[in-house]
Structures are given as C-alpha cells and as structure tokens.
Design a protein that fits this description.
- The chain has five domains: 174 residues, Rossmann fold (3-Layer(aba) Sandwich), CATH 3.40.50; 80 residues, Arc Repressor Mutant, subunit A; 251 residues, 3-Layer(aba) Sandwich (Rossmann fold); 93 residues, no CATH class; 72 residues, HRDC domain (DNA polymerase, domain 1), CATH 1.10.150.80.
- 47% of the residues lie in helices and 11% in strands.
- The chain has 29 helices and 17 strands.
- The protein is globular.
Length: 714
C-alpha cells in the first residue's frame, strides 16, 4: 500500500470524499464531532503523498493558535510537517514583516496588544469621560468596525443598520469621532493593532502586484477551517491570496456561528457555492464524539431554530445538518432546577465530585457558563469540595508568568546536570526544581489566581511523570526539549483539573462530561440578546455547549439569584419541550427535598405542554419512525431489555398516583425513567437513587412503592 493510500485508511465515505477532492473549490459542511480536522488534514496529506501538492505550497488557515498547533501536530504525524498551518493573523504578520521593508522601508510599526490605553487617550482628546467598562465596549466596537471594513465616515450608516446600539454609552456620531481619533493616537505612537495587521497586509497586496504575485507563487493550495467565523476583512485577505484561482477548501458549520458580535459572518460559508460555481459540497454528519442521547438533544435544539437565519443554516444543499450518532448508547442527559445560584454551584460541585468518584478524570470534565462573571461561584464551590480546577480563557499556557519562570528554572537545572540521568526519578527531580517556583505537594485551599498558578506547575510535573513513563531514560534535558516543542506548537500539557470556561471559550473543545448551569431565562438567552437574530445566536451557543460532551451531559437552572430571594426566574425558553422523556429531572437544593413537583422536562413548571419524545432507539440508536416506537423509545427490531409485565405494573401505579395528584402521569415519572427502573431492577433505595430520573427527591417520595412493585409485594 502506498503512503497516499495509507492516508485514506480509516476514513468514512464522506471524509474520504473530502480527502480525495484535491482540485477546484470545495465546501465542507461539517457538523460538531464529525471529524472535520481529521478530514482536512488527511486531505492535505493525501495531496502531498500522491505528488499533487508540494508541502511548502500549502497553507492551512484556522482561527486560534491552539487549533493551528493541533493541526501542525496532526500534519507531522501524517508525514507532512512542512505544510504551514497558521491563524489569519499569524500568516498575515509573517507576510507583512517580510514585505514591509521592501515596499515601505524600515521595520513595520510595533503591535499594541491591548487597545485600552489607546481608547482612553482618544476619549481624553475628545474630552469624554470613560470608565473601564466603557473603554472595553468602545474597543470591541472599534474591532467590529475594522473587521467589517468600515471607516469613520461609513460607520454610522452600517452601525445603525446592524443595530449596534450605544457602545460604552456613546451615540453613533461620537463613536465615529472616536474611530477617527483612535487612528490618530496610533499614528502618533507609531503602533498598530491586531486588525491593522490584516488591513495593512490587504493594502500591500492590493497596491503592489509583485507582492501579490510572490505570495500566490508561494501558496498555491488553501484550506480554511471554521469558515463560518470569517469576517469581511479576513475574507478579503483570502481572496487576495487566491487571486483568480479556485484552489481552496473551506470547512465550517453555520450552526456553530457564535461570533457575529465580532464581525464574523456565516454568509461567506453559506454563499460559497454561489460565489464559486462548480464548487463541490461535502456534508459530514456522522457524529463520532457524542452518544445518541446527546446528539438527539442537539438536533432537537436546532430544529426549533426560528427565523431567516434558522432556515439559512441548512447550507448549500437545502437541509440542515442533522447529526447521526455513531457511538453506543449512553447515559440520559439530566436537567435539574435549584432554589438559587449558590445551591446550583454547590450542586454542580457535588455532581462533579460524583463523576470523578465514578472514574471520570477531572481533566475530562467541564463546567460551561454564559458569562465569565459566573465563574467565581463555581470556583468556590469546587474548592469547597476539594476538586481541582482551572479557568480557561486567560493567558495561553506557555505565556503564563509562572510557566515561563518554571521553564527557565528547568532549563538551568538541565544545563547543570549536563544532560545526564539524575539521581532522582525525573518526576521527583522536576518537582524539586518546581518547588522554587512555588509548587507544593498539596494544592492551596483557596480559589483564584493562587490555585491557577499551582495547577499550571502541577501540569509540568505531570508531564514529567508521563515522559518518564514512556521513556525511563528521560532526563530534564528531554523534558525541556519537550516543553520547547509544545510551546512552538501551542500544545499545552493537560492540567489535571475540571475546566471552567465560558461557552464561547469552549468552542472547538470536548470533554467526557459537560455541565451546563445557568440555563435560566435572562442568562440563556442572555437579557442583552434583543431581536430574533440575537436570540437565535444564543440558541447556537447552547448547541455548542451541548455538543462539547462525549458521554455525560447535565443541565441546570436556578429560580433565584441569592438564597432566600424571590423565585422570579424561569427555565430558558430553549428548554421548552426539548428534553421530554429523553432526560431525567431533579429539583431543589442538593440533599434536600422539595414539595414542588417538576413539570415537563423537569423544568419545575407544571402545566406546560407535554414535551416531544425521543426519536432514536435507546438500544441501537436507529431513528424511530412510528408512534409506538417513539412511545417505548425502542425500535421494533430491538428486543425489550426489561420485563414488560413489571413495566406495565409500574405504569398502572404511576397512573393512580397521577390521578390522585391531578397531574399528568409524566410529571410523576417519565416513561424513560420507568423503563430504566424496569431494566435495572434495583433492590434498595440507594440503587434506585442512581437511576436516571429518580434522584434523591423522587426516591424519597416514591421509592418504597416502586421497590414494592419490583419485588412483587402487593
């Protein structure tokens, strides 16, 4: 078998179609968990190994340094490490640094990493009073204007059309003046910002034909990942790189468009086949990440998408990407209502501790929330439960001061040992060095920055353990070399802690277990989301959160912000009819019993319409086509995994309880829970509590009756 043929081994038919489509424009519509990175990296490798691509002439573009690093790692593993994989900014900066001295002269201006000082200076020149929040909002508006290719003169009309409001409390004419003065401040300081890197590269390519020709001669084949997040400015740069050629493959999922507020637009992906006639469109829908239960939930959420954008997410072929689960069946997602935010954070921490006790690694668990302001309560709750965690969304791992200092210490220690094997095992030797940087054998009890620093150093120690395990002869010199290679690829070592992250920061990541708290109306969708399009983007944000989970998914919301506060909150509108009999439900504070009966889908609101039933077989994951199949949650070809007589007795009992309480039967226990009970046949209340949909509250209320039915007691 040739190297080229070997590259195709293990790809599914659609991934293979992507990998072998080497010529002409290609548009890959790839749903969450469908292996898009695998498909496009194998496409590049197949092109190189078959002799059609020259590695140095291929440019793979993605949106984050982490994604670019992962792509480089995969390309190296496929034997095509010479291929360039960069972010838009990285590729543009490299070209700008090379061509600026030739066409402008001297070195390009320095890049100002943070706009705050520039914005504050511009506001001061206009005699405007600004606080930190206003500076942040104005800086974000400046970024939006620049990536949308607006000038101070064209901003007002475009901002009004886009409904941008009043960033920082300033009206449109004032923002227009700030845009102009902001540019003056940069000129006076001889600095540029990150958006200028793209703008200046575009300007040079447009103004100097020989520069454009040189770039097009260097890069002849392009792959662009996450194309739904491309801004007008990035799209313009890509067009200039391509010239009149069609050697481009774009990959994306319009249903994961969550950065419209930054200027990203899915229109470039959705309109790709129209703009480039003859483009081949390939759809990846086989989900290899999540269980059928999670995939069903994600699909159901998107089916309820409203408005023009909801219809447009269908993409080029006219039908929305409907994921098809490839994994075996797994646990049913849960939805829990809590009295208040404090109780919810405590409940999340208890759930996390339970997952870890069941064998799920802490690093394979994530708590994802809508806003960064929610992080503090979960940090404290996890710290109270002595659960290690890290907060994602700050500095890159290798940019953190404690990591830089630790690497310097390790480098010095490696030189001191002259590369020879140490007296101590590598892990112990590394920890002895890290102790000088602040590492201690036990994590600090408090949350916040101190805990974050310890987790970073602990990740280095764990990496040393892993290196010693794979190569017993490894030394500090080998560890430093490994760290240098990982830093170059932005491949951070795994921090053995639960990840806390915003839903936006979780994009592109995945975990075995995901907890999605804060699903109250006003937080999801957030109260700032006004208008149909903004609300639908919030729906897609929740979709991203759901599809991060491989096996365990736990959703929750709280009725009040503070303990004892008025229960004025309701569950998110996105949960209406979503979970139905396909999820278990709970209510109340962990460890306490609530008298209030949860409504449909465990929302805590009795009287809502009955939710939809699952559409996939619990056993084989096949689509259920008849009402009877949907009722029992099993296709006709799969034999029941429970005693049908027991299930019938449970349903009769449920009907009596529901009639007495004057509530629908599913409010007592859902069909899914009854089937789970009939399948598991628990012998005591402890085992019954672990059944999805039972929990402590339902077990306290109904446990003795259910156990009597299971044991045949009259």
């Amino acid at each position: 078998m040739s190297d080229a043929d070997a590259v195709l081994t293990g790809l599914d038919p659609e991934q293979r179609e992507v990998a072998t489509a080497l010529a002409g424009p290609v548009c890959v519509l790839a749903g969450a968990g469908t292996g898009k990175t695998r498909a496009i990296t194998h496409r590049i490798a197949y092109g190189v190994h078959s002799g059609i691509y020259v590695p140095q002439h291929v440019l793979a573009v993605t949106f984050t340094a982490r994604s670019a690093g992962e792509m480089r790692t995969r390309l190296r593993a496929l034997g095509v490490g010479a291929v360039q994989a960069r972010t838009f900014h990285s590729a543009a900066l490299r070209q700008l640094s090379f061509f600026w001295p030739q066409v402008v002269g001297g070195a390009p201006p320095a890049i100002c990493e943070h706009k705050a000082g520039l914005v504050a200076d511009a506001a001061a020149r206009l005699r405007l009073t600004v606080d930190r929040a206003a500076v942040r909002d104005v800086a974000a508006e400046i970024e939006w204007a620049k990536v949308t290719l607006l000038t101070p003169e064209t901003y007002a009309e475009a901002a009004g059309r886009a409904g941008r409001g009043e960033p920082g409390g300033f009206d449109v004419p004032t923002i227009s003046r700030l845009l102009a003065v902001y540019e003056d401040v940069k000129t006076d300081r001889n600095v540029i910002d990150f958006e200028d890197v793209l703008l200046l590269t575009v300007g040079i390519l447009e103004e100097y034909p020989h520069v454009a020709a040189a770039v097009r001669s260097q890069y002849r084949h392009f792959v662009v990942d996450e194309f739904q997040d491309v801004s007008a400015l990035q799209h313009r740069l890509l067009d200039l790189w391509l010239g009149d050629r069609d050697a481009v493959c774009v990959v994306g999922d319009p249903s994961q468009t969550i950065y419209s507020f930054t200027g990203a637009s899915p229109d470039h992906l959705l309109d790709f086949p129209r703009r480039r006639p003859g483009a081949r469109v390939v759809r990846l829908v086989r989900d290899y990440r999540s269980t059928p239960q999670i995939v069903h939930l994600a699909n159901s959420l998107l089916r309820r998408a409203d408005g023009a954008f909801g219809n447009r997410t269908a993409g080029a072929s006219g039908t929305r990407l409907e994921l098809v689960a490839q994994r075996p069946t797994g646990p049913v997602p849960t939805l829990t209502a809590f009295d208040d935010d404090v109780a919810e954070a405590a409940g999340v921490a208890v759930r996390v501790r339970g997952l870890i006790a069941s064998g799920v690694r802490a690093s394979e668990i994530a708590v994802l929330y809508r806003t960064n302001a929610q992080a503090g309560q979960f940090e404290q709750a996890l710290a109270d439960e002595n659960v290690p965690y890290l907060v994602r969304g700050g500095d890159r791992f290798f940019s953190r001061k404690e990591v830089r200092d630790a690497v310097l210490l390790l480098r010095g220690a490696a030189r001191g040992s002259a590369g020879g094997a140490g007296v101590q095992p590598l892990g112990e030797e590394t920890r002895a060095v890290l102790a000088a940087a602040g590492w201690s054998p036990s994590p600090p009890p408090n949350a916040g920055a101190v805990r974050d620093r310890w987790e970073s150093l602990q990740a280095l120690a764990s990496l040393a353990d892993h290196l010693a395990k794979t190569d017993p002869r490894a030394t500090l010199t080998h560890l430093v070399a490994e760290l240098d290679e990982r830093a170059a690829a932005q491949h951070a070592p795994t921090v053995e802690g639960v990840t806390l992250a915003s839903l936006h920061a979780a994009k592109g990541l995945e975990w075995d277990a995901v907890l999605l708290p804060g699903l109250s109306e006003g937080l999801m969708p957030i109260s700032l989301a006004t208008g149909r399009d903004a609300v639908e983007e919030e729906r897609r944000l929740l979709y991203v959160g759901i599809t991060r989970a491989r096996e365990h998914l736990h959703l929750s919301w709280s009725r009040s912000r503070t303990p004892g506060g008025r229960a004025s909150r309701g569950p998110s509108r996105f949960l209406d009819g979503l979970l139905g009999d396909g999820a278990s439900s709970g209510t109340g504070r962990p460890g306490t019993t609530r008298n209030r009966t949860p409504g449909p889908a465990g929302t805590g609101d009795a009287g809502r319409r009955r939710p939809s039933l699952p559409s996939r077989c619990r056993t084989c994951g096949a689509i259920l086509t008849t009402a009877v199949e949907r009722k029992v949650g099993r296709c006709s070809s799969c034999p029941p995994t429970y005693d049908e007589e027991v299930l019938a007795r449970l349903r009769d009992w449920r009907a009596e309880v529901a009639a007495e309480a004057k509530v629908p039967p599913f409010v007592v226990l859902t069909d899914a829970t009854l089937v789970a009970v009939a399948e598991a046949r628990p012998r005591d209340e402890a085992a019954l509590t672990r059944i999805p949909g039972m929990g402590r509250v339902k077990t306290d209320r109904f446990g003795s009756d259910v156990l009597d039915i299971l044991t045949g007691t009259p």
